[in-house]
Amino acid sequence: MEARSEANILSGTLEIDLLRSFAAIAEARSLSRAAGRIGRTQSALSQQMKRLEDIVDQPLFQRTGRGVVLTHPGERLLIHTQRMLRLHDEAMADLLGKGLSGSIRFGCPDDYAAVFLPSLLRQFSSQHPHALVEVVCGPTPRLVEQLDKRAVDLAMISLPDHSHDDDIIRREPLVWIGYPGLDSAHFDPLPLALSDPDTLDHLAACEALQRAGRAYRIAYASSSLAGLTALVRSGQAFAIMTQTAVPADLAILNGDPALPPLPAVGITLKFGRKRASHLTAAFAEHIRLTLPLL
Prior knowledge:
Layout: H1 2-11, H2 16-28, H3 31-38, H4 42-56, E1 61-64, E2 67-70, H5 72-95, E3 101-108, H6 110-127, E4 130-137, H7 140-148, E5 154-160, E6 170-178, E7 190-194, H8 200-212, E8 216-221, H9 225-233, E9 239-242, E10 251-252, E11 264-271, H10 278-290
Parallel strand pairs: 3-4, 3-5, 7-8
Antiparallel strand pairs: 1-2, 5-11, 6-9, 6-10, 6-11
Helix pairs in contact: 2-3, 2-4, 2-5, 3-4, 5-6
């Protein structure tokens, strides 16, 4: 098997185009989402992945009910792929004289950072290898405070769904989450793990439960997303967050008749200064173009 694998690798090459498609699927965890992101058909991506698997002589993906996951060889290849793509794009940017330089401070809520930032930063870095983006994480109210102090140059923040802001880039539904198999109807009052009291998720949860006449208690209120999800994983509380940020090991409970419906939130960008630097403006435009596809 080992000799055959070496022969296959020697008879083929890990082409940049194949690796870029592989990385897109690995990030999106879905052929259809990756196809929409890079502008190719799902059939074309499937053929590319079959060719790549033939070259390395190993399966790279495993299909699941929620999309695809990487096999162990796929995880190993992804490490090499990310390194090769970064070096390739840096070389092209350098030789063609493209790319901006400098540094900016970017504010982002924890849940958006976990889901969106890896892809956003990787793609921006490939275009501008000499630019440095420093990330500051925190809930929207704290990031607004940082913007007012000019402590960050740009921030991704949440707005209420009914906001009339014309600059909303993407809307995300808020969802109830809990430990799989845990029935919220068995709790009275309902224990909640929420972010800071002035955040949209905290306010939306309390307002929805009050309108529904459902008793609740705040079991945890903190800006730490890790602490919030830890309490939910322990089965001690329920929470709400944007649907795209729900960890795979937690259950979405929006079909639970004991829990009231929740609104959506809008995602937008705000600048720390009226006159943004060229680099800050370029990063903001990159987010506006990329975020709807992630």
